[in-house]
Amino acid sequence: MALVTTKEMFEKALKSDFAVGAFNVNNMEIIQGIVEAAAEEKAPLILQVSAGARKYAKPAYLMKLVEAAILDTGLDICLHLDHGEDFEICKKCVDDGFTSVMIDGSKHPFEENIRLTKEVVEYAHAHGVVVEAELGKLAGVEDNIKVDQKAATYTDPEEAAEFVERTGVDSLAIAIGTSHGAYKFSGDPSLDFERLKKIHEMIPNTPLVLHGASTVLPEFVDKCNAYGGSIPGAKGVPEDMITEAAKHGICKVNIDTDLRLAMTAEVRKYLQENPSDFDPRKYLGPARDAIKAMVQHKIKNVLKASGQR
Ligand SMILES: O=C(CO)COP(=O)(O)O
Ligand SMILES: O=C[C@H](O)COP(=O)(O)O
Ligand SMILES: [Zn+2]
Ligand SMILES: [Zn+2]
């Protein structure tokens, strides 16, 4: 039981049809819910921390909470920085003991993305830490993307090959139609599987990463709305598309929104049904259980990662 890199889990995932879940963490209950699910499912696990999470919970707390999770469950866990925007934050996380960092240079021109990624790879590798980079831009719901626009925002397979070759990055996040948050599609959901297959063909030994992979299950949106929420028209990536993507080189699947919805729905329900309670454990306990159930469902039914530890 230790903090581990993604090396072994990705090698295994690349060879078979499952993907490793990478779940965003912000506090103790979220961490506990996730690790308990992964432990019961005997699944490989990545806990990821965004810059926002780092600011909210503070680096020292997050580090100690993850260490406690390892101690309590006996799991091997990869601790990953999600969407690091510059060299400095990546360096800080490497120095703090993270085992994986993402440098997200996707907003920069190709050459600048390469330069930035190389700089992080050099530092991280010298410290035994693996690096994820991003090429292509995740589109939002309002982009009713036409084919030529797709070419501009989605990951170009040839560029992906050149990018990996020149940066020496360990894994690559790609854009094939997913986006962050609860509003991913205005019409019917669709992902560019042809593009994914082409990318996987060009760089078969590079584990690919799917950001914005929450499904936004109607059950949880409805539950939020039924208990005072207002999240109309939310829509995510159908679960069978995630399972399919895992068969074509996607080794890491990022999930945050689905955890937020599960937790919020449970807290809303509890507080509305129990208006006189004011002990935070009363609603954070069920919220933690809701996170656990959601993660267990993802690992088992969507990522097919049960027993792959
Ligand atoms: O990609 C993510 C984190 O990097 C999370 O995506 P979702 O918003 O779909 O959960
Ligand atoms: O990709 C982003 C993750 O969902 C984290 O979101 P955040 O920046 O609000 O913590
Ligand atoms: Zn990005
Ligand atoms: Zn992301």
Automatic annotation (TrEMBL):
InterPro entries: Aldolase_TIM, Class_II_FBP_aldolase, FBA_II, Fruc_bis_ald_class-2. GO terms for molecular function: fructose-bisphosphate aldolase activity. It is an enzyme of class 4 (lyase). Keywords: Lyase, Metal-binding, Zinc. Its cofactor is Zn(2+). Its EC number is 4.1.2.13. NCBIfam families: cbbA, fruc_bis_ald. This is Class II fructose-1,6-bisphosphate aldolase. It comes from Gallibacter intestinalis. The lineage of its organism: Bacteria, Bacillati, Bacillota, Clostridia, Eubacteriales. The gene is fba.
